[in-house]
Amino acid sequence: MTHTKLCDLVHLPPKEAELLPRGWQILGTVILVSIPDALRDHANAIGDALLAMYPRCSTMLWNRGVAGRFREPICEVIAGTGETETVHKENGCYFKLDTARIMFSQGNLVERMRMARICEDQVVLDMFTGIGYFSIQIAVHSRPKKVIAIELNPTAYHYLTENIRINRVEDIVFPMHGDCAIKAPENIADRVIMGYLDSSHEQLVKGLLAARSGGILHYHEATPTALTYQRPIQRIKDAAQACGRSVEMIGCRTIKKYAPGVLHVVVEVRVK
Ligand SMILES: C[S@@+](CC[C@H](N)C(=O)[O-])C[C@H]1O[C@@H](n2cnc3c(N)ncnc32)[C@H](O)[C@@H]1O
């Protein structure tokens, strides 16, 4: 339906029209879209057309993926005012961010909503918190005792502190700026969230040590489909052995397709 509308607004020969994007992401007043390189010369027209379809949006970004340790977007303004800072609403919470500098994965929405319901009265450690994707929603919906939110990227940390203020959870979410390999506390958390896909296995010992006895670890990983669940489970077991803790499996879930042949999965274990 929306693809048909886009085809009506951007006049292209049928072969090129077939390549027009079929989906896009809307974050607050910003639209992010992936455009095939073959349509590069039509990027501005595509941007103008999408802005015409969503009058409440004001900036159009060509999304080319994310890069680096901080998962920063690679993108370019193709239409609109060029203002990339916005406030996005998800699950009743507000997230201020600069969409050109900070990613926001809509594929993780269901997991964020699930986590937001299950932390009542608990101490939560969110080791790779970003702008507070998990931490804010947990604080707003679960009313936990406390959420410790650690973030290394200064830009993401800036928006984390803004989002704590905007959502009025200053008494629940305690932000820490720095590397969770150094900052993560020990023996304290009822739940530990490790939601970073690039190399969080390197911090598994830290995550396990942060859990109190009986606490639950939520370990996210981008795993080749051939090794789904097997690799993250083995990594958790190896880390537990290395730090003198033991684990009991609670469950595994696939969150989304991450890349061709790679899945984003989460494994949950009780730490003893
Ligand atoms: C993109 S977020 C995770 C996404 C989130 N789980 C979601 O629901 O979409 C991962 C964050 O981990 C941060 N990060 C990477 N290495 C870190 C480290 N060693 N300590 C603390 N934060 C780190 C990155 O800067 C990034 O903001």
Describe the structure.
The protein has 272 residues and is α/β, with parallel strands linked by helices. It has two domains: 2-83, GMP Synthetase, Chain A, domain 3; 105-271, Vaccinia Virus protein VP39 (Rossmann fold, 3-Layer(aba) Sandwich). Helix content is 28%, strand content 35%. It has helices at residues 2-9, 14-17, 43-53, 109-115, 133-142, 154-166, 180-183, 204-210, 230-242; strands spanning 25-27, 30-33, 59-67, 72-80, 85-90, 93-98, 123-126, 146-151, 173-177, 189-194, 211-224, 247-259, 262-271. The strands form three sheets. A seven-stranded mixed beta sheet has the order 9-8-7-10-11-13-12, with helices on both faces. Strands 1-2-3-4 form a four-stranded mixed beta sheet. A two-stranded antiparallel ribbon has the order 5-6. The model has no long low-confidence stretch (mean pLDDT 95). Bound molecules: S-adenosylmethionine. Residues 69-71, 103, 105, 108, 112, 128, 130, 133-134, 150-153, 156, 179-181, 195-196 line the site of S-adenosylmethionine.
Radius of gyration: 20 Å
Q: Termini separation (Å)?
A: 52 Å
Attached small molecules: S-adenosylmethionine
**Low-confidence spans: pLDDT under 50, at least 5 residues?**
none
Find the structural class using helix and strand composition.
alpha/beta
**What is the assigned CATH homologous superfamily of the largest domain?**
Vaccinia Virus protein VP39
Question: What is the strand tally?
Answer: 13
- Briefly note the CATH topology name of the largest domain: Rossmann fold
Give the SSE order as H and E letters.
HHEEHEEEEHEHEHEHEHEHEE
In spatial order, strands of the major sheet run 9-8-7-10-11-13-12
Query: Please, how many helices?
Result: 9
Strand content: 25-35%
CATH architecture of the largest domain: 3-Layer(aba) Sandwich
Range of helix content: 25-40%
Global outline:
globular
Q: What is the residue-averaged pLDDT?
A: 95
Strand count, sense and barrel status of the largest sheet are: 7 strands, mixed
Q: Any idea how many domains?
A: 2
Return the CATH class of the largest domain.
Alpha Beta
